[in-house]
Structures are given as C-alpha cells and as structure tokens.
Design goal:
- By secondary structure, the chain is α+β, with helices and mostly antiparallel strands.
- The chain contains 20 helices and 39 strands.
- Strand 3 (about 45-55) and strand 4 (about 65-70) form a beta hairpin.
Length: about 800
C-alpha cells in the first residue's frame, strides 16, 4: 500500500520527516517497507519563462530561447521543440542538473550556439499525458498554472511529495486505505484524527425511477448500493487528484473513473461505475453465473464463467464479475451521459476463488478477498457523489438503492486490565489503557470496549493487549521474568532421527535437503519400467513448471542430482544422506497421500564400494539397537546393479535396499564413477529399534582367537557363511570379521576363499584350547551342510 504523506496530513496534522514517520509507524505496528519521492531523481530543474525566441543561425529545426530562470541575467537554451511561444512557463534543466534515469545535463554548444541547459518534455521528467492531459506529448511541457520564474520544478509540478510504502498484513484490511493508515498515524503521533464526513448536496429526481437492485445469492453478496448521476461531463481530473493517484501507483484516466479509484484508495472500498445505457432495463441483479455464460471484461478478454462465480447482471446477461472486474461495455466513455455508481460488499473467499480461476487478480479483488466492512459502503458512495459535485462531473440524482442482506454489529470485548497486564508484564491502570485505545477508533461503554466494525482482528483480551502494547511501544515494554517452567522436550521419534543423523555425520557423510517434487522424466532416468507402482505419483495442480510437477515417490532422483552436481564441479569423492519424505498416492484422489520417511545414502570415490556402504549400514543399524541384520542378494531392483545389490532384513521385516547403482542409470545422469547407495525405511528402523543401551562390564577373562580360511562356491553369499559361523560358535563368539577374499591359484574354478577372524570369550572362565577347538568343529559342521570346507 503506497501512501502519499501530504494526503495523510488531511486527516492528521503531523510535523514529521519521512524517516521519522517510517520509524514511528513501524514501531506502532504498521510496517514501512520504504519511502521515496519523485524529486529524488530530479535535481537543479527550475521553472523558466520564455522571454524571446529566435531562429538558430545554422539550423532549420532549432531555435534559441532567452529565459527568465530567476537569475540576474537571462538564460540562453537551444531547443528543437516547435510548441513554444513567448511568455510560456516551462521546466528548464540547468547546467549540472539530473533527470530521471540518471541523465545528467551540462552546458555546451549546439551548432556553434551556446546552450546553458535543456528544456524538458513530459517524458524527460518521468511523466505522461495522463498526468498532464493538456500537455504536448512530443514537445516541451508548458505549464497551465502561474508561478514565479526560478521556482523549483518539483514543487511547481507536484513532484515533491513523499510516497511511503507499507506492508499490510492480512488481518488489517482496514489499513488498505489512506483513511485507515491516517488513523494509525494520528494515534501514533498523539494528534487528533480529523475524519471527513461526506456531504452530498440535494440533487434532482429520484433514484428509484432509474434503478432497481436484487440480490439472489445473499450468502455471497452482503450489501449492494447503487446511485445514479445524470448529465455527466467526462473530462480530466484536477491536478491535485491526478498527483495523488500517481503517487499511489494508479494511472489517472478521466474524472469519473478517477473518482472511483480515489475513493478506493481513500476509504479502501472498491467501487465501479457503469454506463447507464448498457444496464438493460435499469435492473441490476447480483446472482451466480450460469454454466457456460461468457463476458468480455474491461481488459478486452473473453471469459467463460462457471456456476460458482458471482456476477453483476442486467436483464440480458452479466455486465461485471463481482468484486473482480467490470465488463467491456460497463465503463465510462466520451459519449456517456448517465452513470450508475456501485458500492458493494462481496464474500472474500468467493472473490478470491473467482479471480484465481479467471486468472485476473485485480486491485479490487485483492481488497475484497481480505474482508472489508459492509458498514462503510454507504459512506464511500456518498464520498464519490460528493466528489462528483465538487468536480462538476455530473448532476446527482437524489437517493440511493441500498440492499443489505448481512448487517454487522460492532463487536464488544470486556476490558480486563489485570488480564492485559498479566499478558504484557505491565502495571497500566484502566484509565491509561482507555486513553490508549480511544485514538485508534475504539469506544468505551461501561466496562466494555466497542470495536470499530472494520477491525475484524480484535476479539478478546490478547487482541486488546496487542493494541495497548504497540502504542505503548514494544521497545518500551519492561523486562519481566517468564512465569512457569518450560517442559518441552523432543519426542522419541525426534530423538531417534537425531541419533541417526549424528551417526551418519560421524561416519563421514554430508546431510542434504532436496525438494519433494520433480519431473515425471525422473522415472525414466532411474530405469523404472512402465507400469511400476512408483510411477503413480501425486500431480501438483499449479506447478511452477514441468520439472516440479509431481510429488516424489522415490528420493533416488533427487539424490542423483546432488551426486551429479558434485561430480560436475570436480569433487573427486562424496558421501551424502537425506532424511527424505516420499509421497505414495492413495487409491482415491480425495484421500491424502501416505508420507513415508526414508533415509537415503549415496557415495562415490576411491573410498567407497559396496562393502564400505554395507559397513555404514551395519553401524547405523547397530546405533539403532538393531541386532543381527541379514543381507539377501537382490537382482530385480531396476535402478541397481543386478549382481551387486542386497535387501536388508531384520527377522522377517525388510528394512530397505543397498547396492551399486545400475550403469544405465548412471549414464542417464552423466555420472562416470561407480555410485553405491542405500535406501532405508526410517519408519521401520524406528519400529525395530532396540531398547536403551545397558552398561556392560569389561571382561575379566582373556579371549581366544581363531582364523578360518574357507572355500565356498561363488553363488553362496558371504552372509550365509556369517550366519552359520555365528550359530556354530554360540554364546562364546564375541566378534566375527571377514578380512580377506581370494580367487585364483589354489582355489577351484567357480569357488572363492573367504578368511574370517573369530574372537571367542566366556564371561565366567578362561577358555582352553579344547573349548575353542570344539567351537570351531561345530562351525565347520554347520558349514559343511552347504558344501563349505576349510582351505587346504
């Protein structure tokens, strides 16, 4: 919301600077984004009077002007403009002046004749013919008003006001107006708020003879008021109105359209005026659109309406989309003679939905969707009629047509000083609170605060406390000791997730965080076959683009994007993990998708292969308290290498997948080194986690070690040998590790040699060689059942 500072002073007489105003308003709760003046870019430009015009001695299209610029001697400037005459007042950029866009003017010579500056056109001052309708667009700007030569051009042209831009929060639609912000400013500065009550002089006739209004959908239209103006005189608005509209970012058009925009900015209430001859039958109906009904809006586009949209219709069809934009033939034209002013209140969510579906969010819809005050409709309409009379823009017809379906009473909130002081930590008296609350528009009746009807955000004690606090000043609030004891602590799941993250960081992996959406092409990139369940994804209804159009069902593409990016920047080695959410759609579109938490790991480089990643996964499961995981070969995972992949189980529960990624997948991402990955279900890890770790005393008796070199067929996985060794050794086995794999001379073809180191220990005695040998024999017996023997 842009606010001209001089306009505010119509309501609140403040002696302030722009910087002080911005700081004080921000501290009282109305955040100022920035402030600026059109004069910031214009320096050393004055108004000069043309004294004499002579032809240039060496040019057919240049003239030499002698000007009175308020200096001791006349100023000579050469120009090519042909719209000047002696006696004209024009803006003159003197030597070393600056114009909008950073353009600097220096004195010099044109065709041998000295020129001590430049005469300025509209465009050179950042203006258009909308700002000065009587000016010549391609010539020098000639002022209609009288002013003394040498006057600063910014002051003479109305470019010296300051525009302050506010960030208005959704709970304060009352501040989407000059009047609303001026009331805040008056309360902030402690000066009287000089509100204006519109006064409409008696006109002629009766509006009932011209206009009839019906509201069919009373749930979406709370109030509709219409007024009629005859004998309209369409012409440019006065300069003071054009200046204020321009500072608010609104382009002046003509007096009638400008009045509706002016009132919207002043009071926050959108308005519209219809050419009466296009309101067929003089009958306005507020109704829902009919299926397939069409309207051409003021922007020249044809719009197809749907039944949930609210329209303003006459006896033939829609003439406006309620709260959004008028129809093409509902505006004001040069031949318009009679107009209908509309001031109405529509349901905010309905306006927002309609504007979004039609793709035409407007200044009016932006205000309606935040919720406005239906009690203010009449005041705004009367202000528009008052301006019509003030600008001599037409003859007002007596009366208004006012259809009001939802009257809103002022809310009452009990004033409880003790509750407010308890919330703020203050010791303010009731009288002090009342003195703070009255200036912003609140009223006091008995022990209740009467809330203004446009303040929807004040409902209870905490809201009143906020009002008190922001005018006392948050920076002036006393520091108090917090009451009560904070008892918040992480949930068991949050603690578990943190442990997993800390463990992986300790193992040397870097945590990443990627978007939860990507392109459907990602499924092809990871080799998912057609018809695979993971290809069925949640489609985003309004995506930023195709690359972010679906919610991910697997986080692998997101991880590979990170790996690929690191390889492209020549990072020779990398290991990453992500606590990722995957979205599995339900059978019905009305049901939210299932969100699975996954722990995805990926690594590449010299230090990383399948066994290294398997070691990380084993240690991670150990951190989770999960004992005896089993790794079973898997050859059907489409994204993984069929001979270097395994599923991870604990008991009968499948925890996830670990393996080397398929070469074709890596090629799709232009990744040359091998990449190993693990995809673990974090929800299942949490469900299978072990209990609290218990203290275990240091062993009192020595251990016995044995090394076994075993020969097994290639197709027998090492995990099978590991399981049988554990079973044979029983409780005596303290530690088991594979330290060598050999294929070659001395080992039969189709076989492999695996060397294991065993650490045996008893908790209550020292083991003898006989104990250790007996345990080894049991192990060899178990292994012989699958054809595994000691290497000779």
């Amino acid at each position: 919301m842009k606010l001209p500072l001089n306009w505010v002073r119509d309501f609140a007489d403040m002696k302030t600077t722009p910087h002080e105003f911005a700081e004080k308003m921000t501290m009282s709760g109305s955040k100022v984004e920035c402030f600026s003046s059109e004069s910031d870019e214009i320096k050393n430009v004055v108004i000069a009077k043309v004294l004499k015009i002579e032809k240039h001695p060496d040019s057919d299209h240049l003239v030499v002007c002698q000007l009175d610029a308020g200096q001791e001697t006349p100023l000579q400037i050469v120009t090519g403009a042909g719209n000047l005459k002696e006696g004209d007042l024009v803006p003159a950029a003197l030597d070393k002046s600056r114009l909008p866009g950073g353009k600097e003017i220096r004195k010099g010579k044109l065709r041998g004749v000295a020129s001590n500056g430049m005469l300025c056109s509209l465009g050179e001052l950042g203006l258009t013919t909308h700002d000065f309708p009587n000016a010549v667009e391609d010539g020098i700007l000639v002022l209609d008003e009288t002013c003394a030569p040498g006057t600063d051009a910014c002051a003479a042209l109305g470019l010296d006001d300051v525009s302050v831009e506010f960030e208005i929060t959704p709970n304060r639609p009352d501040c989407l107006s000059v009047r609303g912000l001026a009331r805040e400013a008056a309360a902030t500065y402690g000066v009287p708020f000089c509100d204006h009550t519109p006064q409409v002089k008696p006109g002629h006739g009766d509006v009932g003879e011209f206009l009839k209004v019906d509201i069919e959908n009373k749930e979406l239209c709370y109030r509709y008021i219409g007024a009629v103006v005859e004998n309209v005189r369409v012409k440019p608005s006065p300069r003071w109105m054009r200046e204020r509209l321009r500072l608010c970012g609104v382009r002046p058009i003509n007096n009638l359209v400008d009045i509706t925009n002016y009132v919207m900015l002043e009071y926050g209430q959108p308005m519209h005026c219809f050419d009466y001859k296009y309101v067929n039958g003089g009958h306005i109906t507020v109704r829902n659109a009919k299926a397939g009904e069409k309207i051409e809006t003021l922007d020249g586009a044809d719009r197809t309406l749907s039944e949930e949209m609210l329209v303003i219709a006459d006896e033939k069809g829609p003439i406006a989309v309620a709260g959004v934009m008028g129809g093409e033939f509902s505006g004001v034209y040069d031949d318009t003679t009679t107009i209908v002013f509309e001031s109405a209140m529509f349901n905010g969510p309905s306006v927002r939905t309609t504007a979004k579906k039609l793709g035409m969010r407007t200044e009016a819809s932006g205000r309606y969707e935040k919720g406005l005050d239906p009690n203010g409709c009449l005041r705004c309409l009367e202000r528009a009629l008052e301006l019509v009379q003030l600008l001599d823009a037409g003859d007002v017809v007596n009366g208004v047509v006012d259809v009001w379906t939802h009257k809103r009473d002022k809310r009452r909130v009990p004033l409880r000083p003790e509750a407010i002081n308890r919330l703020l930590g203050t010791a303010l008296s009731k009288e002090e609170m009342v003195s703070i609350l009255l200036p912003p528009g609140f009223e006091m009746e008995s022990d209740e605060i009467v809330v203004p009807s446009d303040r929807f955000d004040v409902e209870r004690d905490c809201d009143l406390a906020e009002e008190v606090a922001r005018y006392v000043g948050y920076n002036k609030m006393p520091s108090t000791i917090m009451r009560g004891v904070a008892t918040a602590r992480p949930t068991p799941r949050q603690t578990f997730d943190s442990r997993m993250t800390e463990a992986l960081v300790g193992f040397g992996l870097y945590e990443i965080e990627t978007f939860s959406f990507y392109s459907p092409k990602a499924f092809d990139a990871i080799n998912l076959p057609e018809g695979h369940p993971l290809r069925r994804a949640v489609v985003i209804s309004n995506p930023l683009g195709e690359d972010t159009s679906i919610m991910r069902t697997t986080a692998l593409p997101s991880m590979l994007d990170v790996v690929s990016r690191n390889i492209n920047v020549r990072n020779p080695e990398g290991a990453f993990f992500e606590n990722a959410t995957e979205y599995i759609p339900a059978e019905s579109s009305d049901v939210l998708p299932t969100e699975n938490q996954k722990l995805l790991l990926a690594a590449y480089g010299k230090s990383w292969d399948y066994l290294a990643m398997k070691g990380v996964v084993e240690k991670l499961l150990e951190t989770a308290g999960i004992k005896s995981p089993v790794f079973i070969r898997e050859s059907e995972a489409p994204s993984y290498h069929p001979g270097r992949t395994a599923k991870v189980y604990v008991d009968e529960t499948e925890l996830g997948l670990i393996g080397e990624l398929h070469p074709a997948v890596l090629a799709n991402y232009k990744i040359k080194p091998r990449v190993v990955a693990a995809d673990l279900n974090l929800d299942l890890l949490f469900a299978c986690r072990g209990g609290t770790a218990a203290f275990k005393a240091l062993p009192k008796f020595p251990a016995v070690t044995r090394d076994l070199a075993l020969v097994a067929k290639e197709e027998i996985p090492a995990a099978e040998l590991y399981s049988r060794i554990e079973k044979g050794a029983g409780k005596l086995l303290e530690k088991l590790s594979l330290f060598d794999i050999y294929r070659g001379d001395g080992v039969a073809e189709g076989c492999k040699s695996l060397a294991y180191s065993l650490v045996l220990r008893a908790p209550d005695r020292s083991l003898t060689d006989e104990d250790a040998d007996a345990a080894v024999q049991k192990i060899l017996k178990n292994l012989s059942e699958i054809g595994v023997v000691l290497r000779s």
